[in-house]
Amino acid sequence: MIEIKKAALYARFSSDNQRTESIDAQVRAMKDFCTQNKWKIVETYVDEAYSATNDRRPSFQRMIEDSGKGVFDIVLVHKLDRFSRNRYDSAIYKNKLKHNGVRLYSVLERLDDSPESIILESMLESIGEYYSSNIAREVMKGLKENAFHCKHTGGSAPLGYDVGEDKKLVINEREAESVRIIYDMYINGYSYRNIAEYLNSKGYVTKKGNKFKPNSVSFYEILNNLKYTGTYVYNRSSSKDYSHRRNSHRYKPEEEIIKITGGCPAIISKETFQKAAERRKSVTAKGQLGSKHFYLCSGIVVCGECGKKMFGRKRFGKYAFNVYCCTSYKADCCNIKEVDSDRLDEHTVKLLEREMFNESAMKKRIAGLNKRIERYNCRIPAMRKSLNRELDKINTELIKLHSKKEKSIETYEKINTLELRKNDLEYAIDNLHEIESVSYSDYSNLINRFYELKEDNLRFRTFVQDYITSITVYRDKVVFCLNYGLGILDDVTKKYTFERKLFKTPTQKM
After folding, report:
1. What is the DSSP string of 432-446?
2. Distance between CA atoms of 234 and 264, rounded to whole angstroms?
3. CA–CA dist 75, 67 (Å, integer)
4. Which of 213, 217, 248 is nearest to 233 (CA)?
5. Is the dihedral of CA 491, 496, 501, 504 positive or negative?
6. How far apart are the C-alpha atoms of 253 and 251, rounded to whole Å?
7. pTM above 0.90, yes or no
């Protein structure tokens, strides 16, 4: 009895410049090939708009994982460059397939185990990698040409700008207001958390229409963007590394960066930009709002009895010391006792050192975050299905309401409410994408930064408060809520509870 081989098909196209029809053509050719060879197709894996210059392709990785489960004997591609355009990745994953007893076949390249085929396969892989590198070089040439004419080179425009018909940046006045507020508050000593809370309270939103986050890297990007001074900048970030990742905080040498003064409309003055830069570099900055004593946790200490914030103040008398005191103390019948601010601040730093900013703790947090990312990515199809279901219901309801011959005020109000919800749903569906996993190397620099900033009070407070969501003071305990989302996921927090007496003042008896 002849054993029928089981085949898995893998199809891919690399960018939105290609179309879904490309996938259909590949699959059709592979099905014909399987029919000719009497192979049974057991699975089809498809990656749309993913480059083969790296291995960060969801269906590709799923296929490699499935190859070890005995699901199929063959992986069939239309052409070898669909599998990979990176010789290093190609060698690794073909070896994994071989180890799992799976062979790689190509419809167009008929290769076997002969020595000649080995040489030919190596040449084809090299040509594929050259093709990708050459395209990248030609694209970069075109982008630089656009940059010399101060045209937008792709992606979202920075907050405060829109892209005009001539592809040049134009000011978005509403967004520009938020940019000016960010610079003004930052220069005057406010933390990212304070700035985010104020912007959100006034109804400002990010470029994607979301609320501002205190731990978002967007503030860093805004406060370092020379375009806001009217200077067009391009090719500033360092090139991608060998794994095709880019560190946007690392810059190229000045001679490689394109800078054109007056190349875009200015939102702030150069003096304002310089003041923000000086604050970042300062190591002698005073506390927020002119306070003589520095309160590291100012703005995030909350009263557990009444829910209001606790502020820093100095106590005089036989003992002089600093405390965090509830803003409603006595006045609103809140009798929560104040806590020693120095002890609380010191404990906060030690907690972060132990639970976050050391190698073993950071690796543990990264591993936990990746598990959450994996679970989030698995939920995306269900989330998208649920959102689409709600959107369909709203569209049906809107059709009914619009079809009414006579419409009351209540009808128009309901239509308006449904239209707003419809917009929210459409935006949520458009932005529902898988999140890439992270590695320790991506965030190991945060450990050094934590220790470097200790001598710079204001910058250290801004940094620390990105990782402390809140500190809640109760009568018998103090609860620290740490944020482990690293700006990637929301609500990745963990609470730590300590006895209240650890933070008593010199005059308190507990």
Report:
1. --------HHHHTHH
2. 12
3. 9
4. 248
5. negative
6. 7
7. no
